[in-house]
Design goal:
The protein is an all-alpha fold and 205 residues long. It has helices at 4-9, 26-35, 43-50, 55-65, 76-81, 83-88, 92-108, 112-146, 150-160, 165-204. The N and C termini lie far apart (64 Å).
């Protein structure tokens, strides 16, 4: 069975059939830039920002370059892990919105929480790659607009993108702590409710 880390990387997703260019080599870089000129973001920049498993995102990027704003591409990692997968892919703003929604919705209707979580995972499964590619395009455009030297721009592109197992690990630890605290609080409240009648009887006696 595939490991969690492999699933997060999208190891089970299908590759795009078109050949991927090399990260290195002078001739390839010029060709990549000319092919991607219609999108405003070169493929070498996309490779640097998306990082691991670029080949599994390349088809989505090509469709966006050709005018499709939100191409659907199934991701098993998105279906299984939802927000954790987006966090692994450094989609900080989107993850913050989803977490804020998951916290706020129970105050509106507790029954909506499960539906919200399912909807989030389905969204990640179908449009997660498009979200990641669109985010990568935005990061690449922002970094390129500043006018860094080629080496500095490449360094910043790679730092801005890629993946973060540390963020996922921290999120899991935080969820465990929240779960333990919530369980202890619920247990203490249940114990107080169970002891309340006996206290009332004692006071009346």
């Amino acid at each position: 069975m595939p490991r969690m880390a492999d699933l997060l990387r999208g190891a089970s997703d299908e590759d795009d059939d078109s050949p991927a260019p090399s990260r290195f080599g002078g001739g390839a870089l010029g060709a990549i830039g000319s092919v991607a000129s219609g999108s405003g973001t070169s493929e070498i920049d996309m490779m640097r920002v998306v990082g691991g498993n670029w080949q599994k995102y390349r088809g989505v990027w090509q469709k966006m370059r050709d005018g499709q704003p939100w191409p659907v591409s199934f991701s098993l990692a998105g279906l299984l892990f939802g927000s954790l997968w987006l966090l692994y892919r450094k989609q900080w703003g989107l993850v913050f919105l989803l977490i804020a929604g998951s916290i706020a919705i129970p105050f509106v209707d507790q029954n909506l929480s499960i539906g919200f979580n399912i909807a989030t995972n389905v969204l990640c499964a179908l449009l997660g790659k498009a979200l990641i590619v669109k985010g990568a395009m935005g990061k690449a455009a922002a970094i390129r607009s500043i006018g860094y030297t080629p080496d500095e721009a490449a360094r910043r592109l790679e730092k801005a993108g890629g993946t973060s197992t540390l963020a996922v690990g921290a999120a899991i630890v935080l969820l465990l702590i929240v779960g333990v605290v919530a369980s202890m609080t619920m247990g203490a409240n249940a114990l107080r409710r169970a002891e309340a009648p006996a206290s009332v009887v004692s006071a009346q006696a």
